[in-house]
Amino acid sequence: MITVDCTQCGETMELSVKPRERWTPLPKNERLTMIPYSFDEWVCPKGHRRDLTYAESRMFE
Question: What pLDDT does residue 25 have?
């Protein structure tokens, strides 16, 4: 299990599934395979959000 700290407040973030309307395209330099979108995100207790990177998405496949 990997842990990620929030870059804004330093709290430990949890993995969360994004609502479909907030799916975001991954940057072109990270779109080398069949994951064109970031479906999940990191969320901290204070409500800050961050998309998974391509490498993080691959770890959870």
Answer: 76
pTM of the model: 0.66
DSSP state letters, 15-39 = EEEPPGGG-EEPPGGG--SS--EE-
Q: Which residues pair with 37 in a beta bridge?
A: 25
> How far apart are alpha carbons 60 and 9 in whole angstroms?
25
What is d(CA 9, CA 47) in angstroms, rounded to the nearest whole number?
10
- Report the relative pairing of strands 12-17 and 24-25 from DSSP bridges: unpaired
Residue 36 has a pLDDT of 65
What is the identity of the amino acid at 51? D
CA 33 from chain center: how many Å?
17
